[in-house]
TrEMBL record:
Origin: domain of life: Bacteria
Protein name as it appears in the record: Glycosyltransferase family 4 protein
Family annotation (CDD domains): GT4_PimA-like (cd03801)
Protein's organism: Polaribacter aestuariivivens
Coiled-coil annotated residue ranges, if any: none
Keywords, ordered alphabetically: Transferase
């Protein structure tokens, strides 16, 4: 008998050009013969919330489960409203936990968090970091990693690592994009030909701050801004680069880093949030202190000088464990 699932989240891939967890997971579950209803594709947040509520009310009699993408920002309250409606109508709901800042939300909004996460059917943590943080606060959580359709990621073996850096993230203060410019400036002292490509949408003033720093450091000829690129395009762009830098101050297990690992880039990241749960330092990537451009630059310089290609090979091996063939049984087990 087919099971019907309502997946609540930001179904905005057509507007953003980024394939979301919602889109990836729902398409894979459909292949497993589940019936999926998705909400919402409304760009306006108020309309999106209303659409989510309306969809739940209209479909409630046929639903077996509701999956809820749960973040730490304003969308946290979307998850709260939908979860309480599910409780009222006695529908099993599963928050899927996102964002390295979610533990802070648990502490800041403890009563609301308890209503959501203590009454859920399952709390699904895509990283052991969030699983650990939830369990510290008394909530049960099951670890099911974000999945990659690994067969779609062509691994490029870099025979010689060059000072070509790639950054893929939203331009948002939380992700500290200016750190990438500081790192490039330091690397160019050792490798004058070093270059940086930055891929992602403008979210706040950090984009202007980044461009301002490029001008101040006279790096206009060395930094490329592409704006938003769909995944397949930035995957193609990645072939021109060798080192993927992740400069964030808060994180969970970002899909962009997982994708970069699958594509054969060497990962150098801050140790923010869940990153130590994704990257084993000096084994399949390098972790550095948050906000420390010298340490990140020194590590990248060292990788280039030693031509340490083993890191990227080990990273690819790791993310192959995130393929649907490996992850599917965990989902099928809880969505019986």
């Amino acid at each position: 008998m087919s099971r019907t699932i309502l997946y609540i989240g930001n179904n905005l891939s057509k507007q953003s050009n980024y394939k979301t967890t919602l889109e990836t997971l729902s398409s894979l579950l459909i292949k497993e013969k589940y019936t999926l209803i998705l909400s919402s594709n409304k760009k306006n947040k108020v309309l999106r919330l209303l659409d989510m509520i309306f969809t739940l009310l209209m479909q409630k009699k046929k639903l077996n489960y509701v999956l809820i993408d749960t973040f730490s920002t304003k969308n946290f309250y979307f998850a709260f409203i939908i979860s309480q409606l599910c409780r009222f109508y006695k529908i099993k709901y599963l928050p899927i936990l996102h964002g390295g800042n979610l533990p802070f939300r648990l502490d800041k909004s403890s009563k609301t968090s308890k209503l959501i996460f203590s009454n859920s059917y399952k709390n699904v943590a895509p990283s052991n970091y969030l699983k650990s943080e939830f369990e510290k606060r008394g909530y049960d959580a099951i670890y099911i990693p974000n999945t990659l359709e690994i067969e779609k990621y062509i691994f490029k073996k870099r025979e010689q690592i060059k000072p070509n850096l790639l950054w893929v993230r939203s331009f948002k203060e939380l992700y500290n994009p200016t750190l990438a410019i500081e790192v490039l400036f330091l690397i160019k002292k050792e490798f004058p030909s070093a270059k940086l490509c930055m891929v992602g949408p403008e979210i706040d003033n950090s984009f202007n701050e980044t461009k301002k720093m490029v001008n101040e450091y006279d790096l206009n000829d060395s930094v490329k801004f592409t704006g938003v690129l769909p995944s397949y395009k930035w995957h193609k762009v990645s072939e021109l680069y060798d080192v993927f830098i992740n400069t964030t101050n808060f994180d969970n297990t970002p899909i962009s880093v997982m994708e970069a690992m699958a594509l054969g880039l060497t990962i150098v990241s801050t140790n923010a949030g869940g990153m130590p749960y994704l990257i084993n330092n000096y084994e399949d990537g390098i972790l550095v202190e948050k906000g420390n451009p010298k340490q990140m630059a020194d590590e990248i310089i060292n990788i280039i000088k030693l031509n340490n290609t083993n890191l990227s090979s080990k990273a690819r091996e790791k993310v192959e464990n995130f393929s649907w063939d490996v992850v599917r049984e965990k989902w099928l087990d809880i969505l019986k």
